Amino acid sequence: MIAETMDRWTREWFQQGREEGLKEGLKRGSKQGLKEQKALLRQLTERKFGPGAAEELDRVLEGTTNPERMRAAAVAIVDCETGEELLDRVR
Question: What global pTM score does this model have?
Answer without folding.
Answer: 0.68
